[in-house]
Amino acid sequence: TRLSIHQDIPLSYCSLLKDNEVYNNPLIQERTSSFINNDFTSTELSKRGKNRWNGRSFIKWLEDSNLKYKRLSCETNQRQDLEANTLYSMQRMVWLKHLPKETSSSGRISSLLSEHYLPKVEINNNFWTEWETNSI
Q1: Is 84 a member of any domain?
Q2: Superkingdom of the source (predicted)?
């Protein structure tokens, strides 16, 4: 039916949003495309004109992948820490708001706001799993 009205691509709300780049930030897309396309392998292979790997290029690719993984895991840890601290502070403000006025003036507020009532999310900073740390 699209061919009968000379429409090459389907017309939908999602395609309009994509064309207007409402949800697609070009800077983010460039950054993610650089993660997907390994710069080292594409430039090395185009320079050499070969499509086979040698030991050095494979080790370099592994090192690049490990560095990207570590950088992304650090960014994820920082984002999770920020989210955990934000959640804790929001819960603490809500708890303080709903406390009766007499308890806030009597000094019992520190005992009521312990970690038993307001647990804080602990973020594991070590992303390496058991199979990644064991040598084969």
Answers
A1: yes
A2: Eukaryota
**Residue 135 within any structural domain of the chain:** no
Render pLDDT for 27-59 as a digit per residue (tens, 0 to 9): 555 555 555 555 555 555 555 555 566 788 888
Give the chain's domain count: 1
Residue ranges in the chain whose pLDDT is less than 50: 22-24, 136
Annotate the chain with DSSP letters as a single string: -TTTTT-SS---HHHHHHHHTSS--HHHHHHHHHHHS-HHHHHHHHHH------HHHHHHHHHHHHHHHHHHHHHHHHHHHHHHHHHHHHHHHHHHHHS-HHHHHHTTHHHHTSTTTS--PPPP-----HHHHS--
What pTM was computed for the model? Answer: 0.46
Residue 60 is part of which domain span?
13-123
